[in-house]
Amino acid sequence: MNDIPSPAPRRRRRNTPPAPPEQQPETSYAPPGALPVRRPVRTLPIEVIDDATDDAAPPPRTRHKAKTASSGWRSLPAPVRFVSLSLVLVLFFTSVVFVTRSYLSQQEERRRLEAEAAERAQHPLYYADYILSYAEAQELDPALVSAVILCESSFDPNAESRLGARGLMQLMEDTAAWVAHKLDEDDASYTFDRLYDPETSIRYGTWYLGYLNRRFDGDATKVVCAYHAGQGNVDSWLQNPQYSSDGVTLDVIPTSDTAAYASRVLKARDVYRKYYFPLPSAQEDAAQPSA
Asked: What pLDDT was estimated at residue 290?
């Protein structure tokens, strides 16, 4: 028996409603010969923004204010505008001058303070109590004593020169022994090593400076030269017309090392007077060289 394929089942179509007719735009018909009806059309303004122009131009209110200010300025009389501009310029340049002068003054003050700090650092002061006490006992300027110590040993109590001078004030052995004899201290307890003691060195040194100060009538130049080169050399220089015109004033210091030493000591004395031992007004006026 032959197998006969059965027909495929048919799908039943559903009844779909017909699509609605497309809506046609309403068309108005006019009778022949009639003019077409014009309907009003609403137009919207288009704002065009120009970036460059918008950035450069001020807003309307600013332009209005600027225009008002400009018109107000131009409405002033010419002399008033001239005087106003002159006052503005004067005030401007005055402020510039004031600021510049203030700046320069501050810089000058800063440089002065730095110079003073450096000067003080180069002229320290130690053993001030001993210096004041023994300088007063010998009627000496403590600034001069301090300057001699600075130039002799730089305030090193253990200083010793190549010639054998010792201590703060660098006294030679024979000079120290002579001072000890004058002070009635040349007994068995005295030794030259005592000059390493700061108080002993200052006491002996100030006594010797006081002796020279009295011998040379308080002339600081001759006193300092005698302390460095010896009082005998100063006496011979004063007797030489090449070095002293009157036998009293030492016009020329013949040896370069003593001249340099005297110059350094006297300059250092002035610095110590400035910062540590200021003179009373009367003595300061007397110490000033006459013109």
From this structure: 42
Amino acid at 2: N
Backbone φ and ψ of 69, nearest 5°:
-65, -40
Q: Which of 34-43, 125-134, 197-206, 257-266 has the lowest mean pLDDT?
A: 34-43
**pTM for the whole thing?**
0.65
What are all long-range contacts of 116-119, with beta carbons under 8 Å and residues at least 24 apart?
Answer: 116/275, 119/271, 119/275
How far apart are alpha carbons 261 and 150 in whole angstroms? 11
DSSP the chain: -PPPPPPPPPPPPP-PPPPPPPPPPP-----TTPPPPPPP------PPP-HHHHHHSPPHHHHHHHHHHHHHHHHS-HHHHHHHHHHHHHHHHHHHHHHHHHHHHHHHHHHHHHHHHHHHHHS----HHHHHHHHHHTT--HHHHHHHHHHHHTT-TT-B-TT--BTTTTB-HHHHHHHHHHTT--STT--GGGGGSHHHHHHHHHHHHHHHHHHTTT-HHHHHHHHHH-HHHHHHHHT-TTT-SSSSS-----SHHHHHHHHHHHHHHHHHHHHT-PPPHHHHHHHSPP-
Q: How far is Cα 168 from Cα 177, in angstroms, rounded to an integer?
A: 16
Residues 248-266, mean pLDDT to the nearest whole number = 95
